[in-house]
Each structure stands twice: as C-alpha cells, then as structure tokens.
Amino acid sequence: MRPETEAELADMIASASAPICVRGGGTRGVHLEGGVLETGGLSGITLYEPGSLTLVAQAGTPLAEIEAALDAEGQRLAFEPMDQRGLLGTSGEPTIGGVVAANISGPRRVSVGACRDFMLGVRYVDGAGAVVKNGGRVMKNVTGYDLVKLMSGSWGTLGVLTEVSLKVLPKPETAACVLIDGLSDADAVQAMAKALGSPFEVSGAAHIPAGLNGHPVTMLRLEGFAGSVAYRADQVAGLFGGMAVRVERDPDAVAKGWAWVRDVDPFHAQPGDVWRVSCTPTGAAVLASKLGAEALLYDWGGGLIWARVPEGTDLRSRLGAFDGHATLVRGSGQAKFQPDAAPIAALSRGLRARFDPKGILNTGLMG
Amino acid sequence: MSLVVNFSLAYSRILVISFYQFGGYTMQMPTPDAKVLSRKAGIVARLQEVLPRDAVISDEMETRAYECDALTAYKCPPLAVVLPSSTEEVAAVLRVCHNMGVPVVPRGSGTSLAGGALPTADCVLLGVARMNDVLETDYENRFIRVQTGRTNLSVTGAVESDGFFYAPDPSSQLACAIAGNIAMNSGGAHCLKYGVTTNNLMGVTMVQMDGTILQIGGKHLDAGGYDLLGLICGSEGQLGVVTEATLRILPKPEGARPVLMGFDANEVAGACVADIIKAGVLPVAIEFMDRPCIEATEAFAKAGYPMCEALLIVEVEGSPAEIDEQLALILEITRRHNPVELREAKDADEAGRIWLGRKSAFGAMGQINDYMCLDGTIPVSELPYVLRRIGEMSKEYGLDVANVFHAGDGNMHPLILFDANKEGDLELCEAFGADILRLCVEVGGCLTGEHGVGIEKRDLMVDQFAPADLEAQMAVKDVFDPAWLLNPAKVFPLAASESRRSVALAAE
Questions:
Q1: List of residues 6+ apart from B356 with CB closer than 8 A
Q2: Nearest to B244 by CA among B206, B200, B201, B196
C-alpha cells in the first residue's frame, strides 16, 4: 500500500481488517507482520516560514529534503535526529514522519530538548480511518489536550502520521569542542555534570571509553556566534585544570565528531545487540558497569548510555530496578521497549484500544 | 451562544460588576447532580474519615472563599473543599469521591484566567496549597522535585542562591502553583528560548480519579513507552491530580541586557522582529508595546519611553562580550528599519528603567479604563498583517486597543479598552474581541497560547477543531477517568461531552 493522499490513506485504513506495518523510509529497523503501508507517497514541504521558525511537511517527506531546505535559510532541526542506517545496516531514505513517530533525537537533546519538544502539530489517520488534527503551527498553543506529544514516539501504533509541524532554529555561526583525554567513566560523568551545570550553554556532552585511538575521550560542545564560542570554549576548558584538555576549533571537525557520536559510529558493523538506556546522568557509570558490555558510549552527560552486548543478552535483568528505561535498538529476543508498571501499562493499553480499535497498526510493537 | 464567551477575557473587578448589570452572564454549566447535593452530609462525613479535621471545609460561608478563580465573572461555591497534605491523602479523597460518584475540581492557587478551577455546586474542590515542600534538589543532574502546591517563583527561589533557576515564568508567578502550571502548560516571557512548562517537566506523581497513584517520568529524559507526561501536561486537571513534579532547572546565565527600540508604525516593528529571528539571533525575550500602551504606561510609571507608534524591548543573555556581539547584530538589523529611538542599557539602572514600563503595563491600562485581555497566538510572520488588521478594526469599532505581548513567539495579549458605564460599549468590545480571535485562527494561529481553555473558551473549541479532533481528545479522558468525574465541565463544549457525562451519571 502506498497512498498518495491523506484521504486515500484514510480509506485504506478504514477498510483494512488485517495488520498493517507502517513504514516511512524503513531505516529504523521495524520488522512486523502485516501488509506494508508506505508513507512515501505523502511527500513535500507544505509550508516553511523562516521568520516564524516554522516548518510543516507531509510525513513521508525525506529528512534530507527538509534539512536541505532549512540549510538554505541558515536554519536546522535543533534536536539533531540520528541516522540509524549505519548502526542497523538498513538502507532507504529516513522520513520526517519516521523521525517523529520514533521521537528520534541526538546529542543536543540534553540542552534543547527532544524531537517531541519541537513538535507543534500533527495530522494523522487513526486505526479506524478517521483523520485527526492536533496542535497547529504556532509556538504557544494550549488549546485542548496535547496529542502531539502522545503521537511523537508512539511508533505508528496509535495512528499513521500524515503531516507534521515543527519548530526550527537558526544554525549557529560556528562550533567548538572541548576534549578531555583519559578520564574514567565515573570521572567523565562528573566532568560532564560540571560543564552542563555551568552557564556556558554546553550543547553536547559525550564520553567514549574507547575513542578513535582506543583511549577514552570526553567531548563538550559549544555553539553560537564566533566570539561567544571562543569565549565559552576557553571558560569550559578552564573548568578542568589539571586534566588533559584540548579545544577543537575547526567547525567541520566538530561537526564530524558529533555526527560520529549521534550515529553511534563506533558500534557500526560490530557484532552484538545494541541497547539505549535512558537514566539519571550521575548514576550512569555505576549502571553501565553492571551491563557486561563489549562497548559503551555515553551521551547527554551520562543520561543516555549506548551499550553493545553479546547477542541475546537480557540487559534489563542486569540493570535491575532503576530510574529510567532501556530500549533494544538492534537485536531480537528481548522486548524492544521497557515494560511499564502495571497501572501505566493499563493506560497505554486503553489508549491503544481507543486509537486503534481494530488492533491493526504496527501490531506487536510497544507491548 | 453569547458573544461574551467568544474570546479570552481577563476582567477587572469593575468590569465584573457591569457584566452582571448588562446581563451578559451566559456561560452554561451542567445542572448540579441533585443526588450528590442531597448526600452532602454523608460525603463530608466520609471525607472527614480520611483527612484531618481542619482539611475538610463544608460550611457555606467558608466554601465561598473557593467560589472562583481569576476569571471572577463566574462564581459557584463547591459542595465541599478538601486541603490534603500528601499524595496518600489525595488518593484517599479521590477514592471516596470516585466511590460516591462525586465530581472533583482540582485547584492550585486559583489564578486561572480561563476558569480552570471554577467549582460546580456538586463538586468537591481539591486544593493542593498545603503541599508546597521541596522534596529533592540535585544540581549535578539539574532537577528539583517539589510538591505541586509550591508557587512558581518559589521554585526558582529555592535554587537561585546556588546559581540556578526554573525557566517558565508566567506573569502570575508570585502566586500561581506548579500544579496549575502543569494543568495549563503555562508559558511566560522567556518561552522563545526556554520553552513552556511541558519542555521543562521531567516527571510527575499523579493520582487517578480512582485513587491509583502513578509515577510518570522521573530523573531521566524521555518516555520508555507512550509520552503520557506530555499528554498530562496541559490536560487542565481532567486526567488526574498531579501532587509532585520533577522540574528541569538551568544554570543562570552570566548576565542579560535589554535594548529598547521605537518605530513609527506597528508593521515596521513586526517586520523587525521577523528579521531579527531570521538573522539567527535568539533573544531571550522580545516584548512589544504599541502607542496606546506606551502612553498609558508613561503616564503611570514614567519610565521615560519615547512617544511613538510601537516599541520593542529585546533582551539577550551571556557574558558582557557575548551580549555586545548579539546586540551589535540586532542593532544593525534594527537600523535598517529606521527606528525613531534606539536605546541600549548601559547599566543595571537603565536596564531596570527599560523594563519598568513593560512590567507596569497591565496595571497602567487598568488605571485608564476597563479592558479585556486576549490570548491568541499567531505565526510571527503574520504580526505586521494582524497588527494592521487590528488597527483597522479598532477604527471600525471605535474602540482603542493596546497591544502588549510576547512578540518573539507570536503569543498576543491585545487589551481592548472600553467604558463599562457606557451603554453598548461592552457588546461592541465583545464583538471586536471575537473578530480578533477569528483573525488569529484565520492566519494559522490558535485561541489560547498560555491561559488554557477552562470554561471560557470551551464552547469555541468547535471553531478550531472538527468533531473527530475533539473525539480523539475526549477518548483520552475516557481512558484516564472513565466516569468523567474530574473537572468534567471544562475544555470540551458541554454538548460534545454530554453523552459521556450523562453515562457517568446514570452509572451511579
């Protein structure tokens, strides 16, 4: 199925009785039973107003097309969506609908917010075939319930997105990266907390226990106008007297380094399952030490742990009870999403039954 | 439906009196459930069993203190008021009300301009004011956990001596509670850079109508499953009672500096805002005032503002050198728009005077006349057009409008001036306000940017949403509160929610 219009999509879902697997670009590693419904026919930027920091696009619009349009006006998607093709070994073109459906955010999430924080409005077709809109295209909108947040990250299980409306931000003039070499995971987490707790607007804080040269490196990113970035990079470097601190001031090298973190490059083409653990930042090193991981990467100041573990590892039992959640990004044999506490699971089931009464949308995903 | 309800109102006390005189009081509320009213003594007795004696108020003189919120045009004392001190007490109260089929209206500090905390005669009003402790402060992980009766400003107050702050800053922040901020997804003057409540909320403890206590989110980022936290924020107390909240706190910037600019036309000021944003600067605030507002505030606060058609206050943050860098760009853009005044604050005293007039604007307007305050949001690019149209309509209606608002994010607060003692002026003002809100929706905006729907814009929801859109929202309430007992008369037009509310009644 590949509808060309929202109305066509609504008809298809209204008349469907068997499971449907919703697919944007097919790059996020979702393999389910059921007829594939491709959103690629619903494509194109509907509206882009740089002066309003607003972009509206049909859900099947390739992410690359959106990023090119924004780039031409010196703007960007500030939540820095990762490209999962390298990590998952998938091909195809990521779509904006896929990014929203999976609430895909990158390293800048720690400072500016997630994809869902930049979502202003949605149109979608629910599991009964009804066309629904929520939110709009303005930055402040409290008119009714916020289904925009609910739809973001619901992985197509509550409805098929047809159009999304996003807040975009100016691209900074330049960027720099403060690098600290040789820190233990625990010390790195402390250093990142110190940097993120400073007034210098650190827009990325990651630690790689085995960097490009095999040694640990901690990365702290600054972005903005040239004078400001130079000043803040010096200030942040100055927080870590006595440590092996360097400052990378070539914006291209900085961009490359952070794309490497964003897309979890060190895990590409390496064997094993890949997990994504969201946790309290300062607890990250202790938590990670329980995982028996073959490789680790800390982002969000420690609030996000990427772990590569032997195939079939039951990571959740190793984690035990903790403040956060673990998602299986690559691999099988374990539930992809963290099981919820009973009352939360009951609410989720209730929402799903209401939004997808026939139980046909991405069945088997999200519990 | 009366035009009275067709726009966002914030009445001065004077207006409220004339409002009744004009007979404009037309907002419908559901007929109180006679069975609930007749069982008052039994309900109060059950509540007294689960709460300390002083936490249940049922005397009719005392419940009057809770008869309205900041939308003072509408008043109705509740059946009883409860003031629990813990999540467990909230759960106990809700279980009692759930079992006895009694509606519950949650209340933070009662500062809603939309009637979000307006009671019904058959409800138990649940106030969280006694729950105002700081439970945990963690600077390394940049969060604070509080009970939700705590006021917005006192959250920042708890962390500012350590160099942190809580970003959302609604203008009622001295009084408004975090519970209400979460219910309404409150904004403030600094949203352009820091976002609104939903962008700064990490977790909640919430009690469902049946007494179930939920932990949603926490000290980590994002949801493991559905984003229920995002759904709860802004749900106007209809999905549960939020008793505790984990809030993101931020390190305070090194400094901030405002610049004041005057223009000879509203459109030019609007175009200047769009150009500043397009140039890649993200000021922390862009505030807008037009001539009627400038004149009123000058007379009231004597801030030394230039007499011109439109005035912008743009504030940027950072170290002194960073501020210089941003302001240089902003001033260069501004000069291209031929400002009649361009004033950079050289010290704290000048910065204070630049903000003085803006901060006294609402008080100043109240001195010269009655006014109504609207809360629509528009795309920023439409500012010049919307301001021009408001100007044209102002002439057609023969009523002055003072525009003062957060221009950076398009959240407008036009104040329509009128004389409540002049016959016909109120009706004229109402029609004008309705036209302005229609204009906001027409250009791609919305009815309410930060005040909420409450009862005030409830019946207007059909103008922004199709039946299927409302159905999807009401389906969410069905899941969280199947009996529709929590704040049931709000947000949705009564006709749209009637079948759900009546099923709930019949099931008693």
A1: B301, B303
A2: B206
Q: What is the pLDDT of residues A235-282, one digit of tens each?
A: 999 999 999 999 999 999 999 999 999 999 999 999 999 999 999 999
Residue bearing tokens 């944003």? B277
Are residues A313 and A273 in contact, defined by beta-carbon separation less than 8 angstroms?
yes
Q: How far apart are CA B189 and CA B411, in angstroms?
A: 10
Nearest to B106 by CA among B217, B8, B235: B235
Find the range with the poorest average confidence among A279-288, B108-117, B238-247, B264-273: B264-273
Which residues from A are below 8 Å from B225, CB to CB?
Answer: 325, 337-338, 340, 344, 348, 366-367
Which residues of B fall within a CB distance of 8 Å from A78?
none
**Residue A295 · residue A266 · CB < 8 Å:** yes
Segment (H or E) for A20: strand A20-23
- C-alpha B157/C-alpha B475 separation (Å) is 39
pLDDT at A215 over 70: yes
* All domains in chain A, ordered by first residue: 6-170+349-355 (3.30.465.10), 174-262 (3.30.70.2190), 265-330 (3.30.70)
Amino acid identity at A207: H
Mark residue B86 as left, alpha or beta (left: phi above 0; alpha: psi -120 to 50; beta: remaining).
beta
Does the pLDDT of residue A231 top 80, yes or no? yes
| Residue in B465, B379, B409, B397 with CA at minimum distance from that of residue B435 | B397
Average pLDDT over residues B189-194: 87
- Domains of chain B plus CATH, in order, are 35-127 (3.30.43.10), 134-251 (3.30.465.10), 256-442 (3.40.462.10), 465-506 (no CATH)
Half-sphere exposure in the Cβ direction for A348 (13 Å, CA): 25
State whether A51 and B381 contact (CB < 8 Å): yes
Q: What is the DSSP string of B167-234?
A: ----TTTTT-BHHHHHHHT---TTHHHH--GGGGEEEEEEE-TTS-EEEEE-SSSS-SSS-HHHHHTT
> What's residue B3's pLDDT?
26
Least confident of A64-68, B327-331, B426-430: B426-430
Asked whether the beta carbons of A191 and A240 are under 8 A apart, the reply is yes
Using pLDDT thresholds of 50, 70 and 90, give the confidence band for residue B508.
Answer: low
Q: Which two tokens stand for residue B178?
A: 């975090």
Contacts of B218 in chain A (CB under 8 A): 280, 323-324
Among A137, A231, A351, select the one facing B379 at the smallest CB separation: A137
Residue A207, SS3 per DSSP: strand
**Tokens 């964003």 label which residue?**
A262
Q: What ipTM did this prediction achieve?
A: 0.97
Rounded CA-CA distance A231/A250 in Å is 15
